Amino acid sequence: EIVMTQSPATLSVSPGERATLSCRASQSVSSNLAWYQQKPGQAPRLLIYGASTRATGIPARFSGSGSGTEFTLTISSLQSEDFAVYYCQQYNNWPHMYTFGQGTNLEIK
Amino acid sequence: EVQLVQSGAEVKKPGESLRISCKGSGYSFTTYWIGWVRQMPGKGLEWMGIIYPGDSDTRYSPSLQGQVTISADKSISTAYLQWSSLKASDTAMYYCARPGLVATLDYFDYWGQGTLVSVSS
Prior knowledge:
The complex is a heterodimer of chains A (109) and B (121). In chain A, 0% of the residues lie in helices and 53% in strands. The model of chain A has no long low-confidence stretch (mean pLDDT 94). Chain A has strands spanning 4-7, 10-13, 19-25, 33-38, 45-49, 53-54, 62-67, 70-75, 85-93, 97-100, 104-108. Chain B has 121 residues and is mainly beta. In chain B, the strands form two sheets. In chain B, strands 2, 4, 5, 6, 9, 10 and 11 form a seven-stranded mixed sheet that branches. In chain B, strands 1-3-8-7 form a four-stranded antiparallel sheet, with no helix packed on it. The radius of gyration of chain B is 14 Å and the shape is globular.
């Protein structure tokens, strides 16, 4: 089973600053890595797929990088609407198919 | 416009059965997989399983196999998640989600609004 580990669990950042979230896979998932944003009371929203491709309508301040086992989500200049929980997900591994990280709570400093 | 519309919240007792639904519209229902994701109270996302409505090919998370049943009725473009005997630990929000690419087990591009299931005696 592929285990996805996100760090940190909570990240406190001021609006306008940069946020860097990490996701590590226990074995290589190639570039089959997605990032999701979830706000309270809402369904998750796809931000990034293929490790670095922004989904439709996602602002350019969101960027993803990495391959293999190490991945990063960067939000270049935090807006108030960006404070949420972020999950990474691998979609490379059969039979486990999909595995989510435990999430990073991005909170206002 | 692609939409996944889920059935409403449920309050059940332990041991009862339940089926919740997810109706797809705005796309060819039979040519995209539909998955189910669980979110227990205050916790993260957990993939449960996925079905291809075109031929009912179904895959389950190894940790959840046998605990739930996933099915689909392509005549009404609806996927289901079913329990035969609920436990208190099944209390969670359940989301259906669709991958972005046709016939591909891929990232989830579209999500339902969620169905809250509460199980308590």
